[in-house]
Amino acid sequence: MTTNLHLINHPLIQHKLTLMRSEDTATDNFRRLLREISQMLAYEVTRDLPTELITIKTPLATIQSPAISGKKLCMVSIMRAGNGMLDGMLDVLPSARVGYIGLYRDPETLEPVEYYFKVPDDIGERLVIVVDPMLATGNSAIAALNRLKENGAVSMKYVCLLAAPEGLAALQDAHPDVPVTTAAVDEYLNDHGYIVPGLGDAGDRMFGTK
Ligand code: URA
Fold first, then answer.
1. Nearest CA to ligand 1 atom 7
2. What is the CATH number of domain 5-207?
3. Residue 32 catalytic?
């Protein structure tokens, strides 16, 4: 089990996640709930951003007041399911830069296959927050972080909705420098690479493709 893990078990997140897990929850609600949880995960994952005092004038006085300092943020979505989290993250972090990595899982080998890669040139100067709701085998997460490091990323965090213990361990082995934030760690990964109990295929449920 990863040691660099932030498990966010806030009651609001847990309640919304329960609704998402239910097979009775339809596409529109599923998407809305993922967006809302992602807003809260954005709040948690940015908890340790450094601040500095800046001088401002309120209508009544001139004061020193805290503002976020240091590196700017870049969100990176692992498509396509990552896009459902990206929306909520950007609600909270509207000026973040955005990158996309297109990966699909080969259904036989469960290995990731890349079909798209576009990130800002100055990614090395930014805190990179990588999002994908389901950390299952960890293969896609590891491949995405490898590609980002090849492109200069030095400071990264990984945010998911649900993690399998197997995927967490694999990710931690490959990238021990990258903290993982998740709303839940489920029981196990089944033979088809699905998280159990999980919520099914996040992409299909959010886009209504099945
Ligand atoms: N991807 C999903 O969408 N669901 C899983 O359970 C595992 C990977």
1. 194
2. 3.40.50.2020
3. no
